[in-house]
Amino acid sequence: MKLLDISEVARQSGVAASALRHYEEKGLIHSAGRRGLKRLFGPEVLDQLAVIRLGKAAGFSLVEIKGMFGPDGRPSLSRSVLRTKADDLDDQIARLTSLRDMIRHVANCPAPRHIECPKFQKLIRISARRSAVKPGKF
């Protein structure tokens, strides 16, 4: 098994060496040893990093991503967790699509002032309602 030093892993994966050290500190990846001061990794780390990248893109936290790996370091994905995340993403897409459409309307609205636009007023009411229910979320 050919070991890759941290700079080679960074080059092949596109993940900064500092992020690799962070992922190792958090237990997401494991080095196989050192050559001088450089960490060495097995080639499987490239697949692990691809899973980490996908998990982050989907909105999983590093703690959640860590749980996606079995004791052997191989992906062990919970289908129910993935289904729940997919449903969450569907909800987020629907909210963002609605928001985009409203903003686009307001940007092109023929009303002399935005506040006179019924859709803009609706957007303000929706925003106020969501802020009151879920702080920090739109």
Automatic annotation (TrEMBL):
A GO molecular-function descriptor: DNA-binding transcription factor activity
Keyword Lyase: no
Keyword Transcription regulation: yes
Signal peptide: none
Source species, domain of life: Bacteria
One Pfam family recorded for the sequence: MerR-DNA-bind
Keywords: DNA-binding, Transcription, Transcription regulation
Every HTH merR-type domain range: 3-71
Matches recorded under InterPro entries: DNA-bd_dom_put_sf, MerR-type_HTH_dom, MerR_fam, Tscrpt_reg_MerR_DNA-bd
Name the UniProt record assigns to this protein: Redox-sensitive transcriptional activator SoxR
Species in which this protein is naturally found: Roseibium alexandrii
